[in-house]
Structures are given as structure tokens and as C-alpha cells.
């Protein structure tokens, strides 16, 4: 998609469709639509729609007009942003996404969007939100549809009023493009089925992305993994015919201080059958998305490489299948992790924490990471706790949590902190080894996080359980059903926060 910025009256912009935001500034039960434009023609043409109740400003409500008087665009699409008092850049992002999805399904390819007037956030935030929203809305997981007619949007023109700071807004446009495209890069990977995205292929994709963006990339294979004594990682990988890959990306910009060194560690199980503790057949096809944590880190690194914050960042992606076979690990087996800790395997389906254990140790001891973040589709228990609405956040350090929370809020992603009290440590005690890999039914998201905590030592650390949120089960007006790309934006903001 092509992006452009024009600074002029929106009524004078020639386009297939101009998107204009509307909010509701009424009291509770008495909606009162207000068009977010200072230009008279938009108020004039909206009058009858508002009077008839077809336009109330309610969130994501759509009303299309053809060739309205006094406006050069072929169409005007009014999109509701909800209550005026709460209206923020995230609402505007959703407006842009809903407009994109509505228009692309009607074969309208060239679109303009007017920045909202008289709102309490800055115009550059609105530009970023518009570009990200349109890119995310434009995405459909239709790679393998043979009748896929290319419905992608061709161009987006962001229209800013006269007197706007062009340099600032152009920079925001570029940033929005990098962030939106990177989130879609993640979604594209997550959508791939496991026969088309093995650990080896994921590593190839990472290498290619790295060479395009100037990142350093190194891929460790089975022999390296064994030589590093990554017994936890290898225990998972040993059951598969597909070789595992430990993908390492390094971003080290000139002028960055020696510390901090951020480490982004991702779970990339390209297919999770459960192993010998095999999963039921029903719904197992979804387990192709068990590599979403790794894909999240790849998307974040792709953006970081282009946004160039002055801070060192490494990513470690633990890619493997989890398969049952004659070579697979079995319940009761004991594996020695790279850190030296011994793990009694209670359930081979609790494989994510095993690969991450060694990924975290590698980031800490071999890459010198001072701060760690991991992302993983780790537990069904997190889905039970928070459903598909919030991702789970765990942190062993409040300052680190506050930093992440700020970034998450800026990025407009939903996540909720869950506890890591010492009391939970008892639930992963083993009678024959240091720890077990499964704490049982109760508090499953927490005991999985407690397991990971064993491997971060004293480093400030954030764990994101994205099991429920990495996949959108029901399409929303602004996003297709399928991979969500959750956490990519929060991670980008988090990393940038260290450089600011
Ligand atoms: N990949 C799954 C977790 C998952 C479940 C992701 C549902 C997305 C949707 C993970 O490897 C797993 O199987 N976890 C087990 C752990 C249990 C055996 C302790 C689970 O959550 O059931
Ligand atoms: Mn599993
Ligand atoms: Zn898994």
C-alpha cells in the first residue's frame, strides 16, 4: 500500500472515498453525533443522517454518502468513534481499520482519511493511528485461497488541516507504516500452517528479514543446541523429524550505551501435538499458531531495526515441533536445562516453558542481556482466566512492569497482570528433580510463569502469555478472524522507552 500526507481542506481532496470521524458528545442515553471536522460541507451533509438517527457517533457505526455537496471526494464514509470524552488514538485506529475493511470488501482501493479536529491528543498520534489501523484492517489471512482476488487497498492519503507541522506528520506516517507492516509480518507468519512453516523455514524467514533490515542473524541447529547442553529445549525437539532452530537476532546501533541489553525471547512451536501427552483431535489444527510468541519477537525486531532507537536489543526464538514418536521424550523423563537445573517432565504438552527455559538462559548467559521479555502461547489456563480479551502479564520487578505498562497503554493493547507470589513455588516442586514442568490444573498460567522465573535469575523480566489473544476467533469490524499480532506494538514502544 502507498501512503501519502496532504495538508489541505479535506473537502477539496479528490479520492474514491474520504473517511471522516464522528463522535458522540451527548449524555448517557441521548446520543448526539458530532462530526470531527471544522469544515462546513461535512456538517451540512451529515445533518439529515444525524436527524434520522442513522449517524449517532456510536463506536464503529458506518454511514456512506455518494457525491455529497461541496465535497470533491466520490464518497464520504462517516465512522463513529464512541463517546467524545473518551475518544483517543486507539479509537481512531479502530475507525481507520473498520473503514479499511468496509471499503476493501466493496472494491474501493484508494482511500483518504481526515484527521479528527478538536481532540485532546496530538495530530502525529492520529496520523500514526490511522496508518496502523488501515494496515491492520487491510490484512486478511487469505494466502492459500485459490480464488483470492487481490482486494488489498492501493493507497491511503492522510489529510491534515492547513497549518499542520508537515515534517512531524510525515515522520509519524513513516513510523505508522513500519509498525503496521511489522505487526502484519508477524500475522503472516502465524497464519502459516506447520507444513509450510517448519523451524527451518521460520529460520530462513528470519534470515531474510534480517538481511532486508540490517539486523545480524545467526541460526543454531541441533548440534549447537546439544553442544550448549540445552537439555530442556532438546527434550522437546528430539521427538520430531524436523530439526529445531534457535534463531538469534542482534540489533546493536552505533551510539547505544553498553547497557541495558534487552533480550526478547519467543516460543516458536511450529506445531504442538502435545507430544506423548497428546492433545485431543478436536481443535488441534489451531496449534499451528503455537509459534506466535516467536513471530511476535520477529515482528518487533523488524520494526526496531527500522525505527532505530539507541538501545541494544537481542532476540532469541526457540523454534521446534512438539511431536510424539519413538524418539520423543516421555512423562517421567528428567531433562537437565542449560542452566544446570533438573526438570521432571510430568506432561510433554507443557513444552513451551521447556524451550523458553533454555532460550532465557541463552539470552542471559551468552548474549549478556540485562533485561528479559518473553512472549508465548503458553497455557490454556491463561485463556480460562482472561478469555480472548486480555493477554497475561507477569513481572518479577515492579519498575520493569511499570515501564511495560506505560508502553502497553501507548500501544493500545489489552493485557492484565497476574501474580507470582512465592507460595506458588511449592506447586512446581519435584520429588526426584529440582522442578516439575507442570503444576497441575489450578493456577496453570501462574505455575507456568513460576517455572520460567527459575531461569531468569536476578534479571528484571516480563512474561507475556498470549495463548488467548494471539488468535482472533471472531472477526471484528477492524480486524479479520485469524492471527492478531498482539504484543508487537507494546514491545516496540517498550524498547523505544529505553532509548528515550
Ligand atoms: N500451546 C499450549 C497452550 C495453548 C492452549 C495455547 C490453548 C493456545 C491455546 C501449551 O503448550 C500447552 O499445551 N499447555 C498445557 C500445559 C499443561 C499440560 C500443564 C495446557 O495449557 O493445557
Ligand atoms: Mn503444549
Ligand atoms: Zn504449546
Describe this structure as you would to a colleague.
It is a single chain. This protein has helices at residues 40-52, 89-104, 123-138, 166-191, 199-213, 222-227, 231-237, 292-307, 352-365, 380-386, 398-411, 444-453, 488-499; strands at 2-7, 17-24, 33-35, 62-66, 75-83, 110-114, 155-160, 216-220, 245-251, 261-272, 312-322, 334-336, 342-344, 371-376, 391-395, 415-417, 435-436, 461-465, 471-472, 482-483. By secondary structure, it is of the alpha/beta class. Helix 3 runs parallel beside helix 4 and helix 9 runs parallel beside helix 12 (444-453). The longest helix has 26 residues, at 166-191. The radius of gyration is 24 Å and the shape is elongated. The two termini are 30 Å apart. The mean pLDDT is 97. It binds ligand BES, manganese (II) ion and zinc ion.
> What number is the mean pLDDT?
97
What CATH architecture label of the largest domain applies? 3-Layer(aba) Sandwich
Would you count the extended β strands for me? 20
Q: What global shape is seen? A: elongated
Oligomer: single chain
